[in-house]
Amino acid sequence: MGAPALVEPAGELSIDEVRRYSRHLIIPDVGMTGQKRLKRARVLCVGAGGLGSPALMYLAAAGVGTLGIVEFDVVDESNLQRQIIHGQSDVGRSKAESARDSITEINPFVEVVIHPERLDSSNVMDLFAQYDLIVDGTDNFATRYLVNDACVLLGKPYVWGSIYRFDGQASVFWAEYGPCYRCLYPEPPPPGMVPSCAEGGVLGVLCASIGSIQVTEAIKLITGIGDSLLGRLMVYDALEMNYRQVKIRKDPNCAVCGVNPTVTELIDYDAFCGVISDAAAEAARDSTISVHDLKRMLDERAAGERDFVLIDVREPIEWEIVTIDGAELIPKGAFLDGSALEKLPTDKQIVLHCKVGGRSAEALAVLKGAGFADAVHVGGGINAWVSQIEPEKPNY
Amino acid sequence: MVTVRLFAAARAAAGHDRVDATAGTLAEVLAELIERYPGLGPVLPRCSYLLDEMAVHGDHREITLDDGSALDILPPFAGG
């Protein structure tokens, strides 16, 4: 789609650079001008993990002049199956430093800037402002919404990719010229309902399939050639070995890039995504029901065909705003200190809900640990209940 | 009829990448899909829906899919 070349060309290439980039220079669409644009480009890669590894290596080889790396983690042996920018001797080292060393070995003409910190609302704007384009290789929803919103607020193009098991997705988001990430995924999924690669695994080479699409798009945006993935989602299925495309239109109701945005500054992304502990995610994995399941269960209970206890683990002040008929209130704190356990029947299934599903997942972990094996929680909580089952009730 | 395209975990759960469904509200279309493909039950609550290329917001019972419209069902994942 019609965005101009992102970066103006740098000055002359040296003789060594001409030799190095000769296979680019003889492609008419890239040529000397395109290569000079790459040389002048400043690209920030968020994460030097699965997607970041191939992305950084190919961006470096392509001659992107300045590569920033945001990464606070250290190399673990379990990373090496896919994070090919790191090697055996890097285990235990800072990923940012390990990645820098690999990049320098691939292309000494690249200036590498490492930012060995966790990306959050306090540093993201200053960091992103130093770069032309952001490549996302993070591994969680909270950071992805953070990266998106910061890119929208700063007007930066956002080259996005995501992987799980055999599935990959990639797109370009750039609110100035098309949709943003929230136009595709307006709301994060209920906490605990989507396993991470650490929980569900990922085919190592999938990182290259998706990371190389991200680099392709970054190069096209920088040099202003071709048709970018802006307004299109590429969905890759490694088992079926196919790529399918989904067209995405800019959403006028988008919370951050829409006509009347409700998100005009950075928000608390952990709260927005209902970030939960590993124990809660583990407990919720096979024990999450939908609000439609709950509706059916309540109907069956009313008909005398089923028995269970529905516990609302929110706070009393929230209980006053809106409730699900047939629920009882026991705030999450009583689960964490154990006092809730003696109030619960052991001969009935326990169903937990909260506002969006984060607190109920935490309480569920306590219940599972105490032997309530068939306990479940409601994905999306009362917010999902109100929007899908009882819209006449208030949301908050 | 509406055309429903299923991706990633939704495709795996249904065993199809493209199915037709009866036009109606989004809630009705999803209920029909779950009835035909029960494996979709646990997957759909986390999905994003694009109706004719635009993300769906709000109450599924108030969103109408006319004959000939296209629904994309995309399960999100955030791995990297």
Spatial strand sequence of the major β-sheet of chain B: 2-1-7-4-5
Strand order of the largest sheet of chain A: 3-2-1-4-5-6-7-8
Q: Mean pLDDT across all residues of chain A, rounded?
A: 94
Most extensive interface:
A-B, 54 and 34 residues
- How would you sum up the global shape of chain B? globular
* CATH architecture grouping of the largest domain in chain A: 3-Layer(aba) Sandwich
Could you tell me the CATH topology label of chain B: Ubiquitin-like (UB roll)
Helix content of chain A: 25-40%
Low-confidence stretches of chain A: none
Tally of individual helices of chain A: 17
The CATH topology label of the largest domain in chain A is: Rossmann fold
Q: Can you tell me the CATH superfamily of chain B?
A: Beta-grasp domain
Account of the protein in words:
The complex is a heterodimer of chains A (396) and B (80). Chain A has 396 residues and is of the alpha/beta class. Chain A has two domains: 15-273, Rossmann fold (3-Layer(aba) Sandwich), CATH 3.40.50.720; 278-388, Rhodanese-like domain (Oxidized Rhodanese, domain 1, 3-Layer(aba) Sandwich). Helix content of chain A is 36%, strand content 16%. Chain A contains 17 helices and 13 strands. Chain A has helices at 15-20, 22-25, 31-40, 52-62, 95-106, 124-129, 141-154, 181-184, 197-200, 206-223, 269-273, 278-284, 291-302, 316-321, 332-336, 358-369, 381-388; strands spanning 42-46, 66-70, 111-115, 133-136, 158-164, 167-173, 232-237, 242-247, 288-289, 308-312, 327-329, 349-353, 376-378. In chain A, helix 7 links the parallel strand 4 (133-136) and strand 5. Chain A is elongated, with a radius of gyration of 24 Å. Chain B is α+β, with helices and mostly antiparallel strands and 80 residues long. Helices cover 22% and strands 30% of the residues of chain B. In chain B, strands 2-1-7-4-5 form a five-stranded mixed beta sheet. Chain B is globular and about 35 Å long. The A-B interface holds A 47, 49-52, 136-141, 144, 161-164, 167, 169, 183-190, 193-194, 196-197, 200, 202, 233, 235, 237, 244, 246-249, 251, 253-254, 288, 290-293, 379-380, 384, 387-388, 391 and B 5, 7-9, 11, 17, 27, 31, 34, 41-42, 44-48, 50, 53-55, 57-62, 72, 74-80.
